[in-house]
Amino acid sequence: MFTIITGAQFGDEGKGKIVDLLAEEYDLVARFQGGDNAGHTVVVDEETYKLHQIPSGILAGKKALIGPGVVLNPFSLTDELNMLKSRGISVTAENFGIDLKASIIMPYHIAMDTLGEFSEKDKIGTTKKGIAYAYSDRVLRNEIRLGDLFDEKLFYEKLKNLLPAKKEMISKIGGNPDNLFPAEEAERLLNIGKELQEYAVDVSYEINNSLRAGRKVLAEGAQGTFLDVVHGTQKYVTSSSTIAGSACVGLGVGPSQVTKTIGLVKAYITRVGNGPLPTELNDEVGRHLAEVGREYGTTTGRQRRCGWLDIPLLKKAINLNGYTELALTKLDVLTGLETIHMCVAYELDGERIDYPPTLTEDLERCVPIYGEGHGWEEPLGDIRNYYDLPYNARELIEYVEKICRVPVSYISVGPERNQIIKVDANRPKDPRCNPINRQLF
């Protein structure tokens, strides 16, 4: 079984928790794209873990792999490994592996990212982690790979060829090229390479062999669908492909191996950085979502922009990823709101549209058309049975299922690992719960 899980919005949908939960049912968990600009927060027994590169399945005792589609920051990775080990999490060559072809985020990538963001008039809101420049070097075939850190002579030869161009670029964008990559920094990278060498594997080979042996593999992405470099809201996107199809490329697994795809969607929507967010709320409800939902970036600490759930965007995410099921997260955050709104369509240039326009500039001009349903006051944190949810909460869930034609299989009702409701897609529906007929939402 090969399952792919991705975010259906702009990231921060709670992938860390859901991957950690699902990992119990899988043998391997593999990360297929992105870098340490992503962050997954997992709460286990009231203890919080923040992971940026290592798949959160390692917390469940499963083998975690970082695929060749990832760009790797060796400095932050070693910090992450040391953090896990210091907290009693076993990390060995038996349960952790990194592909030899993973591109290395070099210090000059981070320098260029920082300078580039400061010089841009129309800022993207990058995390300044060097991700775009690392991916650019991959495309230009000027990358340093994990395997290069194991060969000192090869490493220094590549640096000798690459550094002049990097110095020239940094000078052009207003930086100081002097001492761009000091000898001690290179030495430190090589020492980290020695530490990481025991984890080096061919991820594609390992995953395909595991699938042939009947083992279960879970592929996890970073960020969310609409930060995809091709299909997202350019230019306000990340530098890799975040949708489900990217898992096949980023891990080296054929598409015929895919068994199912799971989309994570918040009961509302958030975004970090700039770019369109049609349902954004700059009012008391927006503050409620941010504070109750603890909407602060794992990587940057920035407060996320918050808005009502956007159904047209979710429909597009389903098309782009081919979701077979959804996991609805942070439903508990809506508790206490008298009325729940949901964007069911847009108005663009005086016309109603039910699907997002192709161009980012047009999406920025879209005015959301809202439906509304009744809220609830009951706390959800202790509920584990779908039918124990408040009627109004179930009405919201069943509307999403009906309008999107994809079943909701998991509902998160709190940050803890066990605060989850597993839902049977074939469960009997409450005949009263028909929000479409009742013209709710």
UniProtKB/TrEMBL annotation:
Annotated gene: purA
Chain positions recorded as GTP binding sites: 11-17, 39-41, 304, 330-332, 412-414
Matching HAMAP family: Adenylosucc_synth
Job of this protein: Plays an important role in the de novo pathway of purine nucleotide biosynthesis. Catalyzes the first committed step in the biosynthesis of AMP from IMP.
SUPFAM superfamilies the UniProt entry points to: P-loop containing nucleoside triphosphate hydrolases (SSF52540)
Binding of IMP, residues: 12-15, 37-40, 127, 141, 223, 238, 302
Family: Belongs to the adenylosuccinate synthetase family.
EC number of this enzyme: 6.3.4.4
Alphabetized UniProt keyword annotations: Cytoplasm, GTP-binding, Ligase, Magnesium, Metal-binding, Nucleotide-binding, Purine biosynthesis
Residue positions binding Mg(2+): 12, 39
PROSITE patterns recorded: ADENYLOSUCCIN_SYN_1 (PS01266)
Gene Ontology terms for molecular function: adenylosuccinate synthase activity
Cofactor(s) listed in the protein's UniProt record: Mg(2+)
Pathway per the UniProt entry: Purine metabolism; AMP biosynthesis via de novo pathway; AMP from IMP: step 1/2
Native source organism of the sequence: Methanimicrococcus hacksteinii
Location of the protein in the cell: Cytoplasm
Binding site for substrate: 298-304
Self-association state and partner proteins as the record states: Homodimer.
Name of the protein in question: Adenylosuccinate synthetase
Cofactor descriptive note: Binds 1 Mg(2+) ion per subunit.
Enzyme class: ligase
Statement: the UniProt record of this protein carries the keyword Magnesium: yes
Pfam families for this protein: Adenylsucc_synt
